[in-house]
Amino acid sequence: MKKLIGSSIVAIAAALSFSGSASAADVQSAKPVVQEAQSPWQIRVRALGVVPRDKGHVNQIHGSDLDFSSTVIPELDITYYFTNNIAAELILGTTYSSIDGQGTLHAAGAGKLGKTWILPPTLTLQYHFTNFGAFKPYIGGGVNYTIFYNEDADHNSAGVGLKDLDIDNTWGGALQVGFDYMLDQHWGFNFDVKKLYLRPDFDGKLNAATAGALKMDEHISGKAKLDPWLIGAGVTYRF
């Protein structure tokens, strides 16, 4: 009888011990897995193609038109995520463009009119889609303020063209679509397209030869309808 009671006590103790271990394992396995919180900050470095619309006119010259050169530049953007879906992006970069006369201007010999540097900081508010895994598309819209600096009038060997050129800084709208493809939590590839609505006013002074050929005063003014496409591809880093 004593042996039977002793055996029963040992069996009960073993069962309680096993039950305690199982309960501890269950509690451990029930603990939530805590993932590292992502920073709201992100940067991208892109090669950016700036492709303006070749359109514009000089007010005093009927049939005049303008042509602007396209460029490829390095560009940096900084993004801040307010939520997983809503973010703001600021792009920073500067580019160079030459301005050629077309239409009546070209016929009068005013081919090359000038050149300018352009600084077009653009701020957009974006919506990011988050249900496609590593593929993260987004759309956005915002504002642009473009600064024109180091404007330089140009003329050919015959002295035909501009003596002075001044382009007004201007505000414009911006639309955007793009995507990131994330390789891990921090690194990814990016492709982005923006359309800027940019139409600055300008004024200048024609060389005497051009003004004489057009039978007009040397002072001119007009509007450059740039409306460029910004097409970029590069690397994304999420902090």
From TrEMBL:
Signal sequence, start to end: 1-24
SUPFAM superfamilies on file: OMPA-like
Keyword Signal applies: yes
Alphabetical keyword list: Signal
GO BP field: transmembrane transport
Domain of life, source organism: Bacteria
GO cellular component entries: outer membrane
Family that this chain belongs to: Belongs to the OmpW/AlkL family.
Protein name: Outer membrane protein
Organism from which the protein derives: Bartonella apihabitans
